[in-house]
Design a protein that fits this description.
Layout lengths: L1 H6 L4 E6 L10 H14 L3 E5 L1 H10 L4 E4 L13 H8 L5 E5 L11 H11 L3 E5 L3 H9 L4 E3 L17 H10 L4 E4 L5 H9 L4 E4 L1 H4 L1 H16 L2
Helix pairs in contact: 2-3
GO biological process, one term: carbohydrate metabolic process
Pathway: Amino-sugar metabolism; N-acetylneuraminate degradation; D-fructose 6-phosphate from N-acetylneuraminate: step 3/5
Keywords: Carbohydrate metabolism, Isomerase
Amino acid sequence: MKHNVIESLRGRLIVSCQAYPGEPMRDPRTMTQMALSAARGGAAAIRAQGLDDLRLIHRQVELPAIGLWKDGDALVYITPTLEHALAVAETGVEIVAIDGTAQNRPDGRTVAETIAELHRRTDVLVMADCSTLEEGRSAADAGADLVGTTLAGYTPYTNKTAGPDLRLVEQLAAAVDVPVICEGRVHTPDQARGAIEAGAFSVVVGTAITHPTTITGWFADAVGSAQHG
């Protein structure tokens, strides 16, 4: 079963359906409708956050889901503790995404300890959201089933590239034996293709598909600059 879930993602698109706090779209029903639309468009899986969103998406969307729980204002906020991860697993998702960086986790557990406990107590797959090659290697060695570039450019010790960090994708693909998921700043179809060509197993796209506030801003800025150019 786990192998089948992973294989269903090979060379495919994963769509992240998330809204920021305070936004009009911050509602489980809206995110579920977004996920259903992504499924109709050809997504292989959905990535979403928040227990209510995940429960509803699990019930209504016939695709594998990568679930997470963003909580707190510390450096580690993506499914920051084992308890968060266990709660996400209980929503029915196939994959739980956790922070896979070297930063201290709020519950004091290491990434390796969190992955081991998740595997011992649940049957979910674990995706480690990393920011460096070393973190990806460590997560894979610790038993992560998938490794993502999600946090590249979002930790104090990494630089944010203009688009996806394809160099990190290449490095991870050559260094680990688990699927490498390219995530972060994939804003165009060409960038998504480039991620696969760089060695990514799958590509996650969120903002460019499911965040109309940002997309509107891109167009508004372009129109405005032309007007005043």
